[in-house]
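RECORD TYPE: inverse folding
INPUT: structure tokens
STRUCTURE:
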């Protein structure tokens, strides 16, 4: 019998959480090829380690944390990222709104980018971000505020 992860099969987990894991990897690494490697490693770890989960929230947090750790490990080993100038040369098939938000997030410092991404794109609460990143909730609040300020500067407006 196949291993169940919070009541879901491996295939269901991949289908349900692939966008969240991919988003974390792309936002952190700014390179689609490298993000694919970390994405795959995240789901390979799920398959090989077969951890048990209390519920789907626990599963989602575990996947995001493992994805972040994979990205950190990759960056430590490789110390290279895609520059914004190089990224402009790569064709982008996403919608204009998605490109606009991604472009703005890519210009924000990585630590702030992660918090903004988790809060706005993955709909994490401040307490969930703090738990996932191993930070104090007040630190996350401050970083979220500063990240918003950075986005306001990038967009040149007051409404974020």
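DESIGNED SEQUENCE:
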């Amino acid at each position: 019998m196949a291993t169940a992860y919070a009541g879901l099969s491996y295939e269901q987990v991949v289908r349900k959480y692939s966008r969240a894991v991919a988003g974390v990897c792309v936002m952190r690494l700014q390179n689609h090829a490298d993000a694919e490697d970390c994405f795959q490693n995240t789901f390979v770890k799920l398959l090989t380690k077969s951890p048990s989960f209390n519920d789907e929230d626990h599963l989602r947090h575990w996947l995001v944390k493992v994805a972040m750790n994979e990205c950190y490990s990759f960056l430590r080993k490789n110390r290279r990222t895609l520059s914004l100038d190089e990224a402009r040369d790569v064709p982008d098939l996403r919608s204009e709104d998605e490109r606009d938000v991604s472009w703005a997030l890519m210009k924000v410092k990585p630590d702030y980018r992660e918090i903004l991404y988790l809060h706005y794109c993955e709909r994490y609460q401040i307490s969930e971000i703090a738990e996932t990143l191993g930070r104090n909730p007040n630190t996350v609040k401050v970083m979220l505020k500063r990240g918003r300020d950075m986005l306001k500067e990038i967009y040149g407006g007051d409404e974020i």
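NOTES: Confidence is low (pLDDT under 50) at residues 90-95.
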